[in-house]
Amino acid sequence: MELGLAYVAAGLGAGLIVFGASMGIGKLAAASLEGMARQPEVSGDLRTAMIIAAALIEGFTFFALVVTFMLATHKPVEKPAPQQVEKTTQSVEGK
Domain tally for the chain? Predict the structure, then answer.
């Protein structure tokens, strides 16, 4: 059951990541286009800055997606049985 919840969490996490990135790039593009409309003489500089910022946002988005899916497919750590813990404790105390 824990693995199924990990997949659900990964799906929700991926959705939130992509939604946030799309909102950020959309706001970036809108502000850049508004600046180009107000001052056409700096449109080249604004376009360059917009492309660099969009690339950084996309890079962070891909990194976050990779981390999300790695956490979803990570094998859960199994807890040792109580008998094994007692034997380990006794062997350490005996030395």
Answer: 1
